[in-house]
Amino acid sequence: MRTVKALFALVLAVWALATVYVFYWFRERYGRGGPIPASQAGVLLHPLRPWIHPVRETVEKFGLKPGDTALELGPGPGYFTAEAARVVGPEGRVVCLDLQPEMIAMLRERLDEQVIANAHPAVSDATKLPLADRSVDAAFLVTVLGEIPDRPAALAELRRVLKPGGVLSFSENLADPDYQFQASLRDLCRASGFEVLGHSRQPLGYTMCFTAS
Ligand SMILES: C[S@@+](CC[C@H](N)C(=O)[O-])C[C@H]1O[C@@H](n2cnc3c(N)ncnc32)[C@H](O)[C@@H]1O
Known about the structure:
213 residues; alpha/beta; seven-stranded mixed sheet; 7 helices; globular; binds S-adenosylmethionine
C-alpha cells in the first residue's frame, strides 16, 4: 500500500511539474518575447539538461576541428563552451558573443573556475558582429536563433564572418520556448545563401548544419 501511495505521489508531482512547465513554455513563446533573462540562466545549466541536450554529442556535430577559430553566438552561461574549447584545443579559440552583459559575466566566471584560456567572451549583438570578414572557421548557435528579432540580419552577419566552406550549425530543443522548426530554419538559411550540410535528431530536438552556397 505504501508503495502504491509513493508511486501515486510521484506521478502527481511529475504531472504538476509538467503542467507548470507547459504553462511557462506557452507564456514565454507567445507572451514576453526577447532573450531569456540572465536571472533564469540556472535553467540552462540544470542537472537534467544533459538528458535532452547532451553536450558532447551535440558539439561533435558542429564540425569543429583542432586549431579552428569558432564562433559561439549566444553562449549564455556557457553550457556548451567548455566542450567546444576542448575540441578546438590550445591552438584554436572559441569567440563567445552574447547580447547580455550578465550572461557574459557568468560565462567568464565559469571559464575562470574551469581554467579555460582559449574561450573569449564579449558582449555583442548578433546583427553587428565585431569580427572581420571571413575570419571564422565554424559558428554555432544553440537555442538562440528564436530570440533574435532580425534573423535575416544575423544570418547575413554570420555569412560575412564565416570563411568559405565554413560550417554554420544550429541546435534546437523543444523545451526551449523559442524553438525553431526545421522547415523554417532551412528556408531562412537558404534565403540567406546557405545550403544544408547535414541534419541529425536528438532527444526532443535536432542539430542542422549549413555551409555558404
Ligand atoms: C536560450 S539562451 C541559450 C544559451 C546557450 N546557447 C545554451 O544553449 O545554453 C539564448 C542566449 O542567446 C542570447 N541572445 C539572444 N539574442 C541575442 C542577440 N541578438 N545577439 C547575441 N546574443 C543573443 C541570450 O542573451 C541568451 O544568452
